[in-house]
Write a structure and sequence with these properties.
Strand content: 15-25%
Number of strands: 7
Bound molecules: adenosine monophosphate, magnesium ion
CATH superfamily: P-loop containing nucleotide triphosphate hydrolases
Shape: globular
CATH class: Alpha Beta
Strand order of the largest sheet: 2-3-1-6-7
CATH topology: Rossmann fold
Number of domains: 1
Length: 190
């Protein structure tokens, strides 16, 4: 089996941009966008009409979609599988783990990457992204979410034995971040 990198970060850190660049620049890499896989299943089951409705579903329904995506990703066998996903989801029932025990163990990540940005950068990206229905937030709640992400991250690392990298995605630095990750993964590649 090849490398399996799980890339996480709170909404608005620029995770998807970095992940897409990494996949485009790495030979034999395949993208696994966890939200997209869940959404396609949710759409065909007529549970939701857009991807931002999923986090408002009853958690029990979200769990089924989550399990479906995890199983699909667990079966991917490319040289490098890059998973774009979340450590936790803000649901009406509370913060819910994106990588609970069974899910993260099934995906067998070799590396965990947390993408971060400043609360100012995140707020700006969220409000300017008209393609999404992002939650409105204050600077304080973003600071809290960033801290919560780091604590969920250490749990995933301990459950899987995968090392963690924390990368800062400053405005305009996406390409540099993607290149840095590619370099690390090339060296780690068997
Ligand atoms: P994204 O496009 O990465 O913001 O993901 C869209 C949506 O997919 C999220 O708001 C969640 O509802 C769902 N999602 C993504 N990853 C996970 C996960 N690991 N567990 C549960 N839901 C997820
Ligand atoms: Mg995204």
């Amino acid at each position: 089996m090849g490398l399996r990198v799980v890339v996480v970060g709170i909404p608005g850190v620029g995770k998807t941009t970095v992940v897409d660049m990494l996949v485009a620049g790495f030979k034999g890499a395949k993208l696994a966008n966890f939200g997209t896989i869940m959404f396609e299943a949710g759409l065909s089951q007529k549970l939701v009409k857009n991807r931002d409705e999923m986090r408002k579903l009853p958690v029990e329904k979200q769990k089924r979609l989550q399990k479906f995506a995890a199983t699909k990703i667990a079966n991917m066998r490319e040289r490098l599988v890059v998973v774009d996903t979340h450590l936790f989801i803000r649901t009406p029932e509370g913060f819910w783990p994106g990588l609970p025990f069974d899910v993260v163990r099934a995906m067998k990540p070799t590396h965990l990457v947390l993408v971060e940005a400043t609360p100012e950068e995140i707020a700006k990206r969220r409000s300017s992204d008209t393609t999404r229905y992002r939650d409105a937030v204050t600077k304080d709640s973003l600071t809290e979410e960033l801290a919560l992400a780091r604590s969920f991250l250490t749990v995933s690392s301990t459950l899987t034995g995968a090392p963690i990298s924390i990368v800062r995605n400053a405005q305009g630095k996406q390409e540099q971040v993607a290149l840095g990750l590619a370099k690390m993964l090339e060296k780690a590649s068997p």
